[in-house]
């Protein structure tokens, strides 16, 4: 392995930190690495061609009062594969908030679990305002550039998908909705090159939906009126429609009036699913059983119906059972077993206006992905993560066969945690399951991280290659795969490493 330290960031976190989401498998990194020609156990397939990008929460400064695991500064990791070789980079996302806090040497904004009024600064980002846009939640690639985003809306930061250099913010031809920002979970349709997005906030109409063309310009932006402030996290799309949601879990209005932002579940209200033509203005709303859906997997059209798959939560607001320490109890609603997240299918009939729904499995999984070439189309396979009891940590992978119900599983060893998987289609493949599953591990037993590559059709067989990273990486939230063909300069060089130097 050819490795260099290329940057270090000064952390002001306490040395005796006891926050479980800033220590152990969530220990933030402060070092930025360049590593080429990585050491491999097994063999990197020659037809694995592209980059796995993963965003993580890496707090540099302590919270004002209470750190929430989603407050941390964004750090993106890239591991790229070409011609059977791999390279790795990691870089902080140089957001405005990150740079201002670096200058101040301390936190300047209140986090998700804190009151906005305690923010030292009057300005800020986020659906509720006066929050730092950490850009640490999600990452996708659109128009050849990686875009990072923040959980509760903010700017989209543009990163070079190979070097991870922060290039600035998405501007969309001067029409970026800076006032509301953009939520995590923008969606890219690989057939049209369009990016679909939504945002939400505390002012009417409470939500907007928009489309950005393959030319990186805003082409559509409409109001989505809701009954009040809501907390949607993800959206879905088909060939002709976008699907938005109004789940009955939202900030308690009485607390909001007193400057506190705490989400409560309302089982007496339905889940509302909104279908809008991708370039349309009118939403058709459907009512479904009350739940909260953090993530959808995919949607497609089937005659008069939209088929929508996602993770139904049986218990969106888990009770405090008194088990575990202060922080484990506080963040119990991030543990998959506490939320009871199960793959679920909604069928929305555009003619009758009726919604039928069914549970697809009894297994608890979340963070589901698919072969993105099948995004918006009828598909068969979803690849998802399993969770550690009581914690926001992933301990294995499952391939759900949605046609047969079969599940192909791989469990990581105790003390080893995974990241959100990504499906990497084999170069030149057309079959949905013909490719690889890529994930990063955080190994607390050996204090290291690896990138694992699985044959997507044979996950239970275990990884076909394990690639050592220079340092143990923190747990985090979302990841993505981008094919080499979608990255400018990828083919212009003799190797990805050379592409980095062009
Ligand atoms: Fe998410």
Automatic annotation (TrEMBL):
PANTHER family: BETA-CAROTENE DIOXYGENASE, CAROTENOID 9,10(9',10')-CLEAVAGE DIOXYGENASE 1. Binds 1 Fe(2+) ion per subunit. This is Dioxygenase. The keyword Metal-binding applies. Fe cation binds at residues 185, 233, 295, 478. Belongs to the carotenoid oxygenase family. It holds the Pfam family RPE65. Its cofactor is Fe(2+). Keywords: Dioxygenase, Iron, Metal-binding, Oxidoreductase. GO terms for molecular function: carotenoid dioxygenase activity; metal ion binding. Its EC number is 1.13.11.-. It is an enzyme of class 1 (oxidoreductase). GO terms for biological process: carotene catabolic process.
């Amino acid at each position: 392995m050819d490795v260099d330290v290329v940057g270090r960031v000064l952390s002001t976190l306490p040395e005796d930190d006891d926050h479980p989401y800033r220590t152990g498998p969530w220990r933030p990194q402060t070092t930025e690495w360049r590593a080429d020609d990585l050491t491999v156990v097994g063999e990197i397939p020659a037809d694995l061609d592209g980059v796995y990008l993963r965003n993580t929460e890496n707090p540099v400064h302590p919270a004002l009062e209470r750190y929430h695991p989603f407050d941390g500064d964004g750090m993106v990791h890239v591991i790229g594969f070409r011609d059977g070789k791999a390279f790795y980079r990691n870089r902080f996302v140089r957001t405005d908030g990150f740079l201002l806090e670096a200058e101040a040497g301390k936190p300047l904004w209140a986090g998700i679990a804190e009151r906005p009024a305690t923010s030292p600064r009057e300005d800020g980002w986020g659906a509720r305002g006066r929050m730092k846009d950490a850009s640490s939640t999600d990452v996708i690639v659109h128009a050849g550039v990686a875009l990072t985003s923040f959980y509760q809306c903010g700017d989209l930061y543009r990163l070079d998908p190979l070097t991870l250099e922060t290039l600035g913010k998405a501007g969309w031809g001067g029409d970026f909705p800076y006032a509301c920002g953009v939520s995590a979970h923008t969606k890219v349709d690989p057939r049209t090159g369009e990016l679909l997005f939504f945002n939400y906030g505390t002012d009417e109409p409470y939500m907007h939906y928009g489309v950005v063309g393959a030319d990186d310009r805003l082409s559509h932006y409409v109001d989505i009126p809701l009954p009040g402030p809501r907390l949607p996290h993800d959206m879905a799309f088909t060939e002709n429609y976008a699907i938005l949601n109004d789940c009955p879990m939202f900030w308690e209005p009485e607390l909001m009036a007193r400057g506190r932002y705490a989400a409560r579940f309302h089982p007496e209200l339905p889940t509302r699913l909104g279908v809008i033509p991708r370039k349309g203005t009118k939403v058709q709303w459907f009512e479904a059983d009350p739940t909260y859906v953090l993530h959808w997997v995919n949607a497609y059209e089937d005659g008069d119906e939209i088929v929508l798959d996602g993770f139904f939560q049986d218990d969106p607001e888990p009770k405090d059972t008194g088990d575990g320490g202060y922080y484990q109890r506080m963040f119990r609603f991030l543990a998959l077993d506490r939320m009871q997240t199960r793959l679920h299918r909604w069928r929305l009939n555009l003619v009758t206006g009726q919604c039928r729904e069914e549970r697809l499995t009894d297994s608890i999984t979340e963070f589901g992905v698919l072969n993105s070439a099948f995004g918006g189309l009828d598909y068969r396979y979803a690849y998802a993560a399993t969770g550690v009891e009581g914690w926001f940590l992933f301990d294995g992978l499952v391939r759900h066969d949605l046609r047969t119900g079969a599940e192909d599983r791989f469990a990581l060893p105790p003390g080893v945690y995974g990241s959100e998987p990504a499906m990497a289609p084999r170069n030149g493949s057309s079959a949905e399951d013909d490719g690889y599953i890529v994930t990063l591990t955080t190994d607390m037993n050996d204090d290291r991280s690896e990138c694992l590559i699985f044959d997507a059709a044979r996950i239970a067989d275990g990884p076909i290659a394990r690639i050592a990273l220079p340092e143990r990486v923190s747990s985090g939230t979302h990841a993505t795969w981008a094919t080499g063909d979608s990255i400018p300069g990828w083919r212009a060089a003799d190797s990805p490493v050379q592409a980095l130097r062009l």
